[in-house]
Amino acid sequence: MRTRALALMTTTALASVAPLAAVAAATPAPVAAKPVVYHQKDSGRTVKASVGKAFEVRLEVCADCGNSLRLIAPNARVLRLEHTSVTSTAKPPAVGGEEFETWTFKPKNPGSAAIRVTQRSAEKGGKVTKRFALKVHVIK
User: Fold this and answer.
1) CB 67 within 8 A of CB 86
2) Fewer CB within 10 Å of terminal CB in the chain, N or C?
3) What is the DSSP letter of 40?
4) What is the pLDDT along the chain (140 residues), one digit of tens a residue?
5) Rg over CA atoms, the chain
6) Which residue in 15, 79, 26, 31 sits closest to 53, CA to CA?
7) Do 25 and 98 meet the contact criterion of CB atoms below 8 Å apart?
8) How many Cβ atoms are within 10 Å of 28's Cβ, its own excluded?
9) Of 102, 117, 99, 103, whose CA–CA distance to 63 is shortest?
10) pTM
């Protein structure tokens, strides 16, 4: 009799937990917010960023043409360069396509910093062919 009562209690307990497990399984995991991305068209702007909230600068470069981008390091007390990557729309072994260089920054402390990037040609003397500048005010 005790065994039957215990089995009935266990079945009842499991039946009440099962719907909760189904709800937990159906609840999507939180999705991390995508960082704000600044492009060439944003050059010359002044923007605000919050401490700890990463953002990206993504610029197109014609690497096939021999051009290269150079980041002039911003104030390290205010912004930290977290990551740099280069992506291309060309599928190997093809040559060409759009190529983008992306810098991910994470604001460390309140203050101001300037992000500057120059594009230089492959010609002798490497003339600056394009400039990017973004002033960032970091707030708490």
Assistant:
1) no
2) N
3) G
4) 544 544 444 444 444 444 545 545 566 667 778 899 999 999 999 999 999 999 999 999 887 778 889 999 899 999 999 999 998 887 776 676 788 999 999 999 999 999 999 998 888 777 898 999 999 999 99
5) 26
6) 79
7) no
8) 5
9) 99
10) 0.73
